[in-house]
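About this split. The held-out portion is used to measure sequence recovery: a designer receives only the structure tokens and must propose an amino acid at every position. Recovery is the fraction of positions where the proposal matches the reference. Here is one held-out target exactly as it appears in the evaluation file.
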């Protein structure tokens, strides 16, 4: 628990960003392996976001600040790429087309992944504008 002492809002925001990113990765892998739709681009940028977030938690000052920005970019890019992958599913739902290209999709799981990626992105932005360490 000493690791959490004398930490600022930026540290906790970055921690939430990292945890939400890991949860998004787990849900993404389980769901997309089940429907055979894992894409390397989303997976790679999500892993980059998580790794950069971990680096931001471990290092202070300049390296931590740069890593925070890289993590936000990774999560934002993962959000956009995943949206691009799922846009066909939304088009089919809007036009009431079933079974053309997207099969066995569960809208609730897709929304959960979007929410987790969005939380990672927003809390990463909050972390980039706040101190990670308290003075004193």
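Reference sequence for scoring:
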């Amino acid at each position: 628990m000493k690791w959490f002492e004398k930490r600022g809002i930026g540290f906790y925001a970055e921690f939430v960003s990292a945890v939400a990113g890991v949860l998004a990765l787990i849900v993404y892998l389980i769901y997309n392996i089940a429907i055979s739709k894992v894409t390397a681009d989303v997976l790679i940028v999500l892993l980059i976001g998580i790794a950069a977030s971990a680096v931001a938690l471990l290092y202070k000052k300049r390296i931590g600040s740069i890593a925070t920005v890289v993590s936000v970019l990774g999560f934002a890019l993962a959000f956009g790429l995943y949206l691009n992958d799922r846009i066909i599913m939304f088009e089919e739902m809007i036009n009431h087309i079933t079974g053309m290209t997207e099969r066995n999709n569960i809208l609730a799981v897709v929304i959960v992944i979007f929410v987790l990626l969005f939380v990672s992105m927003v809390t990463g932005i909050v972390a980039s504008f706040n101190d990670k360490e308290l003075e004193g």
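Annotator remark: The first helix runs from residue 9 to 34.
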